[in-house]
Amino acid sequence: MSGSATGPLPSAASFWPEPTPLDPRSAPLPKYGTGSLADLLPAVAAGQEVPGLSSGLGLAPADRVCVFLVDGLGWELLRAHPGEAPFLTSLLPSSLGGAGKPLTAGFPSTTATSLASVGTGLPPGAHGLPGYTVRDPGTGQLMNQLRWQPWTDPHDWQPYPTVFQLADAAGVHTCQVSAPTFAETPLTKIALSGGTFHGRLTGEERMDLAAEQLGAAGRSLVYTYYSEVDGKGHRFGVDSPEWRDQLRYVDGLAQRLAEQLPPRSALYVTADHGMIDIPFDPESRIDFDEDWELRAGVSLLGGEGRARHVYAVPGAAGDVLAVWREVVGERMWVAGRDEAIEAGWFGGPGGADGGGKGVDDRVYRRIGDIVAAACDDVAIVASHTEPKESAMVGLHGSMTPVEQLVPLLEVRS
What we know:
By secondary structure, the protein is an alpha/beta fold. Helices cover about 30% and strands about 20% of the residues. It is built from 19 helices and 20 strands. It has helices at about 10-15, 40-45, 75-80, 85-90, 95-100, 110-120, 125, 155, 165-170, 185-190, 205-215, 230-235, 240-260, 290-295, 315-330, 335-345, 360-365, 385-390, 400-405, and strands spanning about 5, 5-10, 65-70, 105, 135, 140-145, 175-180, 195-200, 220-225, 265-270, 275, 285, 300-305, 305-310, 330-335, 370-375, 380, 395, 405, 410. The strands form seven sheets. The protein has a six-stranded mixed beta sheet with strand order 8-7-9-3-10-20, with helices on both faces. β7, α10 and β8 (about 195-200) form a beta-alpha-beta unit. α12 (about 230-235) runs antiparallel to α13 (about 240-260). The protein starts with a strand and ends with a strand. Residues about 1-5 and about 350-355 have low confidence and may be disordered.
């Protein structure tokens, strides 16, 4: 029987309507130009009268400035743990020049991208590190921009000068204080070099030397870094005892540094991204290596679980985009390359010609044919090809507040 006196039976679609993919233009963009990590050092250096630099981020000038970057210390994570970080919590009202608001990382919210933005003062579409792994158009291989594998010439990959180099050339005493292992890495060379690198093993040694270097000249710019908040979050999760212990430790480091500031100094405590724990179940961790729909037409999978660059086989980009939108489009912002660029994900309106604040020509094809950024508590893992990354508890990369928002805490002497 196909109907009744009242008419035909309703279709299945009326009960289960087709899913509506998220609009890529609805993603909460980083505040490029006014409140992103890329705007921090240009604002600092402009206040030290380094020529050629300006910023839409308003910070009061200081003769001596130290930037302490804590890897993984997101704004929302800090606000959620006042007991573990009483000193840093007390500084929350000072954030963003006294506005009590966060700074934003760029997209993706990942270490290589963010450190390049901090050091160069440029958004990802310009400095050219637009993800954890991206395709090298010259070789067709995935390039890991954190570990710099496979090798490529660093200054071909990122040719712009760093803010540290510009400050050093302008007579500002400039240095970096970090773990010795970072002294000669390609990422340090293209993102954080300029002045002198000082390697110190312990956090306490770094804080003490950073304060000493800050007072070594009338104008100084010092950068120091600590990684293990991020490391414990990846391994154990951001609600683990191990992560909380690291937050307590960093809180003490920041207070130690703040108490040693020489006169006419400003200390900024910031981060490269936040982090979110993703459950280990098939709905939360979709395994690309086991999903034939997501794999169809894909030649390379780049990025990381929360921010994927998807490279299609020639001629298949449109079909791959349609499938990804159908399969994960309710839980991830899924965009074609040009859509993501035009929406401003990598730094502002632009396109293949690199116009405006968009994407440089050399960077354009590093970006995936399709870019997928998580909105929900979900990740696209790859259990066979990325076993270590797929086993991480805490993840980051997307534009959600817990990942993208970072503090810009301030202490002045």
